[in-house]
Design goal:
- There is one protein chain.
- The chain is mostly helical and 142 residues long.
- The chain has one domain.
- Helices cover 82% and strands 0% of the residues.
- The longest helix has 56 residues, at 86-141.
- It is rod-shaped, with a radius of gyration of 30 Å.
């Protein structure tokens, strides 16, 4: 194991060789630094879980929307095949367009709601940890 010193490395070390006393002088509260780092990691993990869960929910919502849209298309195709006149076909197509538009608005609204929830859930643990860090920094500066 090689110990890096100011002479064995091209980098400049602020303390020459590592000096635990000097480190403690500059960073007196190492226990709280560890707790803060652990809290940041836990918050990041919780945030990632919320993101994954949200993205899975978005996928399920999109699939349900696409399934509904496809059913509407198939149903309209059957009606068009049975249309007795051009006017009937035009009416069926017009109704399809109205229904498809409303279905898309509803589907996109649901996806938007899921994304909003996902962002809120994903950022909540990070915001909580940031508040803790700010409070500790304020206390340390006082």
């Amino acid at each position: 194991m090689m110990i890096m010193t100011a002479t064995s490395s091209p980098f400049t070390f602020p303390f020459g060789t590592f000096n635990a006393d000097a480190f403690s002088q500059y960073f007196p509260d190492t226990d709280s630094m560890g707790a803060l780092a652990r809290g940041a990691m836990e918050a990041s993990t919780e945030s990632t879980r919320a993101s994954v869960k949200g993205l899975q929910e978005v996928g399920q919502t999109m699939m349900a929307h696409m399934k509904q849209q496809m059913s509407l298309s198939v149903e309209t195709g059957k009606k068009l095949a049975e249309a007795g006149s051009f006017e009937d076909a035009l009416s069926i197509q017009t109704n399809f367009m109205k229904s498809a538009f409303e279905n898309n608005l509803t589907g996109f609204s649901k996806v938007s709601e899921v994304y909003t929830e996902t962002l809120r859930d994903a950022f909540a643990p990070l915001a909580k940890q940031a508040k803790k860090a700010a409070k500790r920094a304020k206390t340390a500066a006082a």
